């Protein structure tokens, strides 16, 4: 069962929705995490920005593919929520401005569940013209 | 431009992430909205539950198709975030337990932008066995 | 090159958009074809209705899988235009009322191109309530 | 209910299928509309061509995002019909040559339904070699 | 790097393509695995059949969600190869007859990569009439 | 019915999974075929590499669009198995290294079924860093 106080997805979402809550949340739970921002018309740059931050902050290791694989799929799942139907940005004439958060820890009551990853994205998506945009959210969860 | 204090998507997300904030948020902004819960292996039951609540609470009118059309597409977009790739639940052996919120109002600085709809979903998705599930989020935004 | 007067897709579309033009068009070109109607919340019933009509009218043979395979993929492609993103009807709480046409013939200047199939769909898609719907179109083209 | 004589999608489709019918149709109904052509291996150029024409001809206003948002989603839905499964052109080695039409008006019997948009696309899709292509259609409908 | 002799996906594929090679392959590598057959018009029955076999044969544990989560996503990825565009069977009037294999082990040279899962599917997909079908393959790989 | 000894998809898969079996298989069945390799972050280069090889080896004719059309769709279907959800490579920061095979012949007992095409792909997909990748498979079957 998910532990009510350790819902890792909810915490990652709070990190992208509320900038002030950040530091204490991560420390309180004993979780590892990072936050950052990225704006682009290229989905691959969003992926790269999150991967770079997660490796730099030690959320995932750089020497094992299995951790990169877990993060990659969590990022793509979060991007599905942002793009809602097609993982495309500039190729269909739209751009994103996103705040991202990655959290790593065990959200389950059973300690044997080990670590999971949550990737949260929040920001705007729209035409490549300032103001012609609306909000978007995404969350990807994966075991690691 | 989106008005920093009237980000309708963020407010709808807070309504599904934090149960206590609900009533005051909706009233403070002069927005119309509703919240509710739905659990199902049928995506069409999730759609129906949200549509029924939104009509009952007066978020959309029952006599004009254009408002139902706006809500329907916002719901499907929110479900894309929850399902991340394929709008299917029981047909691929998974189920959801979701809290939903619908907000209606103008999130832009320009008053001529008129009303927009935000549909937020938060809860769990997973196997039809209690505990074999993780969190999921979704947000659909549409003009109305 | 496509022959300007034998654009098979355009002719199939005219058959679903304009009921009066039907018979003469099919005969004039020496094409084989059929038209019909189907309304359903089940995509598989739309597929079955078109397959049944096409076999009954001799547009495709019943004894060779290759012709059924060509028709099946043309139908699914036409349904993509109708559903615009997800080949689902009732499972996302929507229904269709469609007129369909299937034409078989060679639309190319080169006679060696042989027969091709065009499946056209036109009608409405929307909530399972009369009037809460809008128009939709679809066209699938395949070699046969 | 859709008004039998004001089916906006059907009219937009006739505009792309039959070049001669154009002007009188738009004027007869009191509708606003535009037609044009675009050929590209980039989906974003198709989107841009239609958006530019619609703004230039006054079909949508340039100062309100809600109208651009309505048009954008109608265009993407029409492109789903053309691409049938994946909103990609050059990235999967194919190109389109399309005639497009955008119409704005009320297709419903109820005058309170207000304006709707229809985006119709018709032309060819295929390999980036002249003649190695077949026909394609698409229609997107949205409230505005 | 993938170890040339321990390509887990290739081995799982050989298990579904060649019935005779099965037992020795699994034992030779020190891998855990299972094979089986399933035929259905319901994708959820394919998922359930593979999950049941994998748990019964001890390929994944029953008490930890993280292993079920890894297997579920590997199954869905394999089904993408079989269905090629839409994870639907009976709802678009088609059925599958599949042989499946699940293998668990480390395919990488680096022993720290730990266990991975490979789910391979091979068989036929087509109309619900014997013979009106062609072959299909799928492979899903996930860390566990 | 598929002829047990002439399963064209299985043979194409064996050609990409086992390099030694190649030549004799193609000759034994009286089939036409080709094999090759391609690595790229651009899906269109994978498509082009297979099309070029198939034309050069005489698997499909260069003068008839219907054969190119059959091959194109078989390639895209095979790529669905490799990409599992979205036909994108570099645009979502991943690359492939693939061995491909194309076979042409009649896999059915009924000689009237004529020629069919099988396109098989096998190799790796992953981050654009050597070693950060796992295996992938794909198979597309089409009548020709």
Automatic annotation (TrEMBL), chains A, B, C, D, E, F:
Stretches that traverse the bilayer: none
UniProt GO BP: L-histidine metabolic process; positive regulation of gene expression
SUPFAM superfamilies reported in the protein's UniProt record: Hut operon positive regulatory protein HutP
One annotated GO molecular function: mRNA binding
Keyword RNA-binding: yes
Alphabetized InterPro entries for the sequence: Regulatory_HutP, Regulatory_HutP_bacillales, Regulatory_HutP_sf
Sorted UniProt keywords: Activator, Histidine metabolism, RNA-binding, Transcription, Transcription regulation
Domain of life assignment: Bacteria
Pfam families reported for this sequence: HutP
Reported function: Antiterminator that binds to cis-acting regulatory sequences on the mRNA in the presence of histidine, thereby suppressing transcription termination and activating the hut operon for histidine utilization.
UniProt similarity note: Belongs to the HutP family.
Quaternary structure and partners: Homohexamer.
NCBIfam families assigned: PRK03065.1
Protein name stated in the entry: Hut operon positive regulatory protein
Species of provenance: Shouchella lonarensis
Source organism phylogeny: Bacteria, Bacillati, Bacillota, Bacilli, Bacillales
